[in-house]
Write a structure and sequence with these properties.
Deoxyuridine 5'-Triphosphate Nucleotidohydrolase, Chain A, four-stranded antiparallel β-sheet, 16 strands, alpha+beta
Length: 236
């Protein structure tokens, strides 16, 4: 699978490139202890830092970065980003634009305010038969916004930018959203729908189920040692 990112030639030296999600694991995860005391269990137990599915989900795919610092004060967004006039007609220069609240007023995530839209400075092309799934960075509730998920047929739509709408979730936020902050986590998904098959356990599957459950309960790291697949590194 190849993901091809392209940008306006006048902006190539001014943009942060999308980067593998595995390189953007947050500081709070890195600082989290591997074990913590549980009053319920009366002993130390493993934290989610030792849960491969939790970490692997955060490390999967590609992050789309914020192209410049954005200052937020009392709901006002400002930036100081000096870039050349793009060569392509109709290309954005501002890192943000907005969706009026009326566009999603009936959605459960609506908060009565306009949604922000992270403008795209990269086009994304996928191989035939694949679509781009964009979502909020996994398990990143520390970010002061919540991205609205979307699916784009980027094997066909790849000559225009894909923008990323989000709801701002911290109205009292004062500070800076820093350049390079991940705003969307993206990965390629096959467009062909899977065939769904439903079966009851036969004897072999019953025995396999009982063995796996017993192994998991008997020792730590069973999934990590015996089932977790080795992941190839994304190349750039």
């Amino acid at each position: 699978m190849r993901m091809t990112f392209r940008c306006d030639p006048k902006l190539a030296d001014h943009l942060v490139r999308p980067y593998p999600a595995r390189t953007a694991l947050p500081d709070w995860l890195r600082a989290m202890p591997a074990k913590a005391h549980s009053d319920i269990h009366g002993r130390d137990i493993r934290t989610v830092k030792q849960c491969p599915p939790f970490v692997d989900a955060m490390a999967y795919g590609v992050m789309i970065p914020l192209p410049c610092d954005i200052k937020i004060e009392a709901g006002r967004f400002t930036w100081d980003w000096d870039i050349p006039e793009p060569a392509a007609s109709g290309h954005p220069r501002a890192p943000l634009s907005f969706h009026p609240a009326a566009q999603f007023a009936a959605a459960p995530f609506a908060n009565g305010r306009s949604a922000i839209k992270f403008n795209s400075f990269w086009t994304i092309e996928l191989e035939p038969g694949w679509s781009l799934f964009a979502m909020h960075p996994v398990n990143r509730d520390d970010l002061p916004f919540r991205l609205v998920s979307g699916l784009v047929d980027a094997d066909r739509f790849h000559d225009g930018g894909i923008n990323f709408p989000a709801v701002w979730t911290q109205p009292d936020f004062f500070g800076v959203l820093e350049k390079g902050t991940p705003v969307a986590q993206c990965f390629a998904v096959p467009r062909e729908a899977p065939e769904l098959v439903f079966e009851a356990f036969d004897d072999a599957h019953q025995q396999a189920y009982a063995k796996v459950v017993a192994d998991v309960l008997a020792a730590p790291n069973v999934y990590r040692k015996h089932f977790r697949a080795k992941r190839g590194r994304l190349t750039r």
